[in-house]
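Practice record 12: protein with 2-phosphoglycolic acid.
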Amino acid sequence: MRKKLLAANWKMYKTIPEMKDFIGTFLPLINGASDRDVVLGMPFTALATAAAMLQGTGVGLAAENLYPEEKGAFTGEISPVMLTDVGCTYVIVGHSERRQYFGETDEFINRKAKAALSHRLTPIVCVGERLEERERNRTMQVLETQVAGSLAGLDAAAASAVVIAYEPVWAIGTGKVATPQQAQEAHAFIRSQFARHYGAAAAASVRILYGGSVKPDNVREIMAQPDVDGGLVGGAALDPHSFSKIVWYDR
Ligand code: PGA
């Protein structure tokens, strides 16, 4: 059985005091939700303080990026060693905003995923088609290329330790959520690709999250799809009440 995973991606939002307010309100609201994994992804600057607040709570901590080297002359970058040092257990890689604004390629994302795995960080690898790709019926081709490229060189055990987030670019921050059928179709496709490349056991265990305008009022229907194992939530995860309702999607 795949444990459900609800992850927040705060993007470039929240100062340390704002993060403290969020966590202070949020933790009591999700008390008892130990049958699912909850992860908070936030800016580098808030990680150390958040790690101290989350210690012993079972809530995971994610960075939103990393540089795929342990150390070196890479001014302004943060290494996987630094992320584990600060208390991260997850890291988001290949988000569409990084692909779009920072020119990240599948090859670079692949290096990041490998760097994360070799430092006991679970990479949340984001994939997803743009609107014109969907309109030209290229969705599955795009997903296949992104998944294969991002996971190149991983064996079955490593590949199934990755979390995949399917985030159609046209649904991110737009309020236009994919229909549960569109999400299920994409997730089933990605799982079948895992089965072909890594075998049935890896396909059965890899977790595939949906991201893109997940909200308290649409999360239940999306989570009801058989190949949807959780959500990666941006806007609706900035408020602790809203994100706690998403964590409790089945209540
Ligand atoms: P959204 O963002 O929930 O605001 O659409 C999701 C994401 O970018 O991960």
